[in-house]
Amino acid sequence: MKKLWTALNRELAAGRPAVLCSIVASRGSTPRGAGARMLVCAGGETTGTIGGGAVEHRAALTAAALLEKGASRFAQYRLTPSDTADIGMICGGDVRVYFQYIDPADRRAGETLDRVLALLDSPGAAWLVTEMDGSGWRMGTFDWAGGLRGLDVPMERLEPLLGSRGMLEEGETVLYAEPLTRAGTVYLFGGGHVARELAHILAMTDFRVAVCDQRKQAVSRTYFPEASSLLCCPFEEALERTGPVTAEDYVVIMTPGHQGDYEVLRQALRTPARYIGCIGSRKKTAVTRERLLAEGFTGADIGRVHAPIGLPIGGETPAEVAVSVAAQLIACRSGRLEEEARHAAD
What we know:
The protein has 12 helices and 16 strands. The chain is α/β, with parallel strands linked by helices.
């Protein structure tokens, strides 16, 4: 997501208009749902995707025409069987797209974009809010610390739209809110090969990542260009130095040695972290469990730990292991892990 907003900022700074194509509602089988965005620039370049295939092609043509007119509009697209065949879908669906013409001379749009870019690097949850009517659009941001900025919308109307996915509400005006960032940080302990691959994948999937290692050379911007923060300290002090780990946060442990993993794990179990995962074999996991029990942790405490970490996809290379871990974190964020745990308990 940051790539798209950075591209938009670049276009406006260069004095070029752009059209932001946003899926604001969908029904049936569609490749992307509400919240998917594609930026179409004056030179024809695009950033992001609203699903590919015939709909994205038609949307790009519509955006190019609107760039010529300097206009915004809604459009509805129905995916027919012929549209969906090339993207592997059996049946079609409907998507509603808003085409938002953004003028580089629009000062308020520029101010909102500045806030968007700042919020993308902040630790809390934030939403982009767009109000649309016959006269055009107005855009603002909402976060719990700063409130609603750039728009004048009653909180009783806005609050029901502040969910984990884009939501649309139609009244005297059309109001659309979608998450910019979700609360929570992935604290990644260890800066080795798997961690480097994982940090990159997590950045692509809109996780905020903080990396900690006790080796100075491991916590380098060269290896972690997209990390929100880098920390070098002994693993025995790791969670003291990161600051409070909250119930929205994720702890991923993949230090270069068993002792480092253990030191971080025993600290992580004293936090309310939403997710705790530790890399390693089943044998190592069993040994670590015995050490934790001897230290006074309960079976329920240790049961919070995902070890071996990641979903069982059979990967071996650092990149493959990183994919399996990222998939597990996405499942946790979406609530799927909790659902599966409840079903297993039943």
